Amino acid sequence: MDFLSAWIVSPAVLPFLCFILGTRAQQAFRTEPRNLTVRMGATAVLRCEVLRASGTVQWAKDGFLLGPERSLPGFPRYSMIGNPERGQYHLQIEDAQLEDDTQYECQVTSSESSSGIISSPAWLNVRIPPSKPYFDMDMSTPWEAGKKYTVTCIAPDAKPLAEITLYKDGVELTGAESFSTSGSKDKLLNAHAEVTVTALSSDHGRQLACHAMNPTLLKPVETTMTMNVYFEPAELTLSGSLTAIEGQELNLSCYATSSNPPVDIRWWLGYKELNNTSVAMEEGDNGGMTTMSNMTHRVSREEHGLKLTCEAFNKGTHFSKTQIDELSVYYPPQKVWINAPPEDVPLRSGSTVHMACFATGGNPKATLAWFKDGKAVTGALKQTSFDMGVARELVVVLTASDNMASYRCDATNKAKKTVSAYTKLRVHFTPVSMKITAQQEVLRQGEALTLECQAGSSSPMANISWILGPLRLQGVEEEPRDAEFGGISVHSSLSLNLTSQHHNQKVICQAYSHVLAEGANTYYKLNVLYPPEFSPDQPTEVQVLEDDMAVVPLLVSANPEEVSCIWLHRREKLVKEEDYRYRWLDDHSLEIRNVSRNNAGVYTVKCENDEGANEISITLDVQYAPSVKAEKEPVFVNLGETADLICVADANPIIAGMFSWKWLGEEEVEMGEETQEDESGLLTIYNVTRAHAGSYECLANNGIEPPASAHIRLVVQFKPELRKGPQWRKVASRGDGTSTAEIVCQAEGIPRVDFSWEKSGVLMDFENPRYEEVIVREGAFHTSTVRVVNVSAVLDYAVFSCTARNSLGEDKLDIQLISTNHPDPPSSFRQVSVGHDSVTLEWIPGFNGGLQQRFRIRYRWDQTVSFLYVDVFPPSETTFTVTGLQPVTTYNFSVNALNAIGESDYADNNAVLTITTKERPESDEDPSDIDSASPGGSGLPVYLTVVLTAVLGGLLVFNLIGCFFGLRWKKRQGQTAAGSKDSVLDGKKKEDEGSSQSTAGNSNKYESREMINAAAQRTLLVDSGSEADSNVYESYAEECSHYYYPTGVYTPHLGPHPEETRGLDVIRRPIDSHGHLYEDVRDVGMYQDAPAPSLPPTSVVFEHKPSQQRNEWRLPTRPQGAERTREFMAVHQPQRDSDLPFELRGELV
């Protein structure tokens, strides 16, 4: 192609071509290309149309041929268009570019018939819009407000040259200067525009725009620049308190108004920069930022008075502004001390001591206060000041309480910190107290009196001495003891054998300190009681003349001084009313008027007081004190009737109102109506109750000491009343013919109560050797016990009716003899108390089924999936505390009874007792304990979980092994039981014959290791914390059975008691009541109507010998003994399989 083109364009070859091709029609241009202007990117078409084209048509671009092919290979944007049939060879240029801007020619090569032709040149003018204008300036450097800056905008590479317009915040800038430079390529021009701008703070963040426009654009192209103008804050403010206590944190704020860039705030205290700051910035005016610096600084006393500076610095404008203020720091006194006597120098009580407290340093100066043992001391002198500090003096008059007392001086100021100094004084003081006490309240002649003297605290220790009149006595000293005020207390005792001479004397106890050369003392005045004593000067003979007045002196002393004397003449008592001539003086001397010979003789004077009597023989007229006796004793009365108690006095004189009555019982009763008929005193009691029964005292007093008294016993008769609680209505025994049952009936009544028994409505025949009745009487209590030997289920399981009767009436009780069975449910289940982690419960037991019963409490709360069980310990208790509970948690409680056979329903018809525990006290709260105890706790640590898992796994393996061997052992025992049964029974018979224990004693001995009920099988033991041997169970089902072995009940020994044994009508007393040993039980209260909780069972031991018809049966000595006997029988249970109830052994009666 290049070769061909070279030939076509060369003029030298044209003649040669003409010669070769010959002569043809000449080619010509119909249309030649013309100059064309297009916008860059547009399509340009240069037109070329040839007439009679015989040569090859092609275009030349700037003298370079593009090729004859219409598609113009190698020039993808170029092509020849038009109809070649019509000679149209138009050049089409798509997406015109700057490189297309040049000269173009349409050429036709020569042919055989025509020579080649070339069109006139045509220019393609490609117009190019300017590129995006830009600012020719340092845009990274912000402007500073107030300064002038030259803004230059360039619109590059435009054709033709672009026109530039500048705007600031939408406002056209005038006065711009423009010029042009060459563009990046030939034919392109760069337009330049410059203008001078003064920066303002309000320009910050505003737009600076440059618009470029040339003919190729419909709208100008633009570029914008956001002006970044640095400007300074208008104000700087310091806020916050500049006053602080030493050690406290100072919190201040420094605020700078809007600036750009934001200012840096620095803090200075003196010459030290503070760096513990936090900065917060917010948008401010003119697009700037406000700056808030918060400074925290812990002040010290050395910083007091320093200048605190807040400096704001603008890095953009290098602007700096400060706020300065002075810091005021409060701090406590630097040193506090007390000028006082040394602690090791003793001071004497009563002396005056001056103590001064000094305090130096501190801002402001300190205020001083004195304290003694933590209490403020009043009376300190006024505080004084000096250059370095303050002082305050305290003047103390020493007492015992100052010994080793802690004196403290507190120095305080606005720093709110107390600085203290301490001192102690050693004070010597005599005993602060003295006290004598006697071991006896009443002192009597001939007795030994022990006086104890307690000397209160003293320092140093004092020595005690005793003084009685002129005598100095030595006491018995005890070991000294530490006492109050840091002193020592001493104690001494003195023993005296009292005589009447000691009366009204003072025993002095003196505690003396040799160091202080002084002491303290107290005394005890003796008031010795002694019977009358006659003076040695007492005359023994008095001579009088007939019809004269004789005074027989009586010199007697006694304590108490109230002495009564009786005068006897010829062994006859002299009475004032019998002879008006007799008169007794205040000193008990006898004055006789008109003495006659009948008055002559020896008079015996008997004197007495509360301590005794004495007598002397002199001439004396006697007046005698009353004597009294009961007209009838005892007095019997029926319940509800009227009782009359009468006493008769022998006295002179007989005076009205001389009788008084007194009830000698412990409880108060209504006494009744008191009347007097001459020498008889009458007490009438209406509507007598059993509470009136007892002794009454009749006291007669006619004014002559001593008064006389007599006792009258009132006996209230009432019909029998039987005890009828749950444990009295049933008796359980095995019915296999090998056991003995005891049916006990106890009544209270007066007069004597007799018993009769019926079985199934038929009167019992006690001639039958299988039945025997034993009656015990103790006061108003009467107990009849029927022993049924070799109990048969067919013959003896029946209702036994006990009738107790006396002359006033009768009472009846039906007692059912049944087989041993599971117990009856408890009743009256109630809450006693509740705490934050425990609940105390109480109930009334039901019938025990003939076996020892125990109780189990069942409970749960909302978070548990099963019940927890607690075995009550001791087993017979009817009050129990469940511990280990959670605070403020609602629990549901139930209780039932169990024995060797089975268990009862839950109390009160399976009722549930709902109780909510209280809140835990704050003093007991421990966060770690609460988290570990709460049901919703976070759980155990991982290592504890692993250890517990391993331990529980091992226990489970051992449990399974134990189950396996336990089942094998039970199987082996079952195989050997049949072979050993006969030998066991034979041995049992021999044992019955030679033992003092009856069949009844063995009838209730069951295996103490009973199997727990099915509901509690496979239980998880949890310590209940209530009793030492109690357990808590949480039930869950497993195939393997487990056994629970309860603890046995302790059986105390009973004391001896007489008894009587009878058959049907014969009552026999044992020959030697001391030969019977009884087992005593704990003290129990009197019989009550309400059913009492079951008491701990007591064992009953007796001997049964039918051949001798003799019964030595041991019964309790108390009225409640029968019930206690029955309960004790339930303790001993058989230890062999053959001793189990026949119901458990599967035997038939």
Automatic annotation (TrEMBL):
Segments carrying the region annotation (Disordered) are: 978-1007, 1130-1149
InterPro entries, sorted: CD80_C2-set, Cell_adhesion_signaling, FN3_dom, FN3_sf, Ig-like_dom, Ig-like_dom_sf, Ig-like_fold, Ig_I-set
Q: Does the keyword Glycoprotein apply?
A: yes
Q: Name one GO cellular component term.
A: cell-cell junction
From what superkingdom does this record's organism come?
Eukaryota
Q: Which residues fall in a compositionally biased region of kind Polar residues? A: 995-1005
Alphabetical list of Pfam families matching this protein: C2-set_2, fn3, I-set, Ig_3
Task: Name the residue ranges with Basic and acidic residues bias.
Answer: 983-993
Asked whether the keyword GTP-binding is assigned, the reply is no
Q: In its UniProt record, which GO terms are filed under biological process?
A: cell-cell adhesion
- Leader sequence residues: 1-25
Could you say which protein family the record assigns here?
Belongs to the immunoglobulin superfamily.
List the protein's name: NPHS1 adhesion molecule, nephrin
Native species of this protein? Answer: Oreochromis niloticus (Nile tilapia)
